[in-house]
Every structure is written in C-alpha cells, then in structure tokens.
Amino acid sequence: MTVHVTIELTEDQKTRLEQLAAQEDVDLSVYIRQLAEQRLREDDQWRMLIEEGLAVAETGPSFDHQEVVRRSRMRRAELLKGRG
C-alpha cells in the first residue's frame, strides 16, 4: 500500500530535485521515493553497526576513542563504496 505525503520544499530544492530526476530519466516522485529508500537502508546499516559495536563492547576487546572513530570511518566508507 502506498500513501501520499506532502513535503514543503523551496523552489530551488524542487528545481534541483526535478533536474536530478530528469538525469535519471524518472518521475520526480519516483526519484524522491528512491532517495527515501536509500536513506532508510543507510539508517538500517548504521543501526546494525551500532548494535554490533555494543555487542562487541559487552563481550570483546575495547578500543580507545581514536580507534573507534578510525574503524567507524573505514566501515562507513566500505558501506558507501558498496552502494556506489
């Protein structure tokens, strides 16, 4: 089931989204739906990483802040690369 959602955009935002949709040769609503799906997948992946990190923190080795940041950036880059 699909539902209709109304969002407020500036004229510039709407124009830019229309241009990007045209480049992909899709309707604006399809393009925005694809963006939403992509963002939701990224959010799911990020939450999974957090859950994994919490599980490791409870049972596995611990790392200092700099190491955590380094590993998080590496993992996020891997996820983004895989999506590209």
Automatic annotation (TrEMBL):
SUPFAM superfamilies: Ribbon-helix-helix. GO terms for biological process: regulation of DNA-templated transcription. Signal peptide: none annotated. Residues 5-42 form the Ribbon-helix-helix protein CopG domain. InterPro entries: CopG (IPR002145), Ribbon_hlx_hlx (IPR010985). Pfam families: RHH_1. This is Ribbon-helix-helix protein CopG domain-containing protein. It comes from Caulobacter mirabilis.
